[in-house]
């Protein structure tokens, strides 16, 4: 496709066309080549990669199904063109930059999803039929025929919408912040590119020198006094020469370089904590920062994606038993110590078996490792009244075999 040709060989008009593509719905869609602002690029990259790296789990009646076909479809092989990671990455990146992204669900005769294929925003038009509560997706592939896709066969990812149909990009609210940030960067660039940046002046007290003579004196002076070998050495000048060291006024540069308002605004719009864009965050541990990132940022994106998957990929009555949910353990277990403490707590409280704990660290199961153990200090709540009466009368407890203090 023309959108992937080298920009170096294209005219300025062709470059602009590549950077802003007019979609069938009349909206302008931004390609990757247009992300020239480093903060916007970092925000999109951070969110897209973190969401793409998080497995989408399939829960059957609340229990994870790691061996299901839906799990492999979403996380490993959505189609024959790219992996599950990049499928999720391009969906999220397009939704962040353009407000929405699309993927076609290819099903078999029984309606089971077989493939998930990303569709370019500029080639899809979501149409709401007049006087009918129905949406159709018209797909116009480059070099192909128009196809009308049913809404249940199109994943339509969006994170902000006023009507539930058309998504809005965070970039639409960052026009002035990005412009002010780019103006500051241009000021720094122009300062060094166009400014007169001199290290010193050699003044000849007598005579008028030609251009050739000035060049010769400059070269000889630099040869004798500049470079690593001449550092901290004494300068020897002729009687008619005078050297003055110049200082560069960097006050303006300090103001520009220390101006972080635009960066904070970009982080705020994407819902990112400021430290994700390089702004130092004090008095916060890595664990606290990750939990804050998960709770206040990623959970909202996860919920939007999982809701669309549940709505489109799990028809009734399958949706009564199955649900999609992102695995967030890597954000909650930020280091080896936290993970170890969590595994030990689950093991000691009978939630994990020994083999479950071994599996968390990639070890093979052991014989009889599926048994679960609990402390004898816990007792069935229905037996508490009987235990208290027996203790008061110093009688044997009939249900002692079920656990409790009678077993100690």
TrEMBL record:
Lineage: superkingdom: Bacteria
Pfam families in the cross-refs: Phage_portal
Protein name: Phage portal protein
Species the sequence originates in: Bacillus inaquosorum KCTC 13429
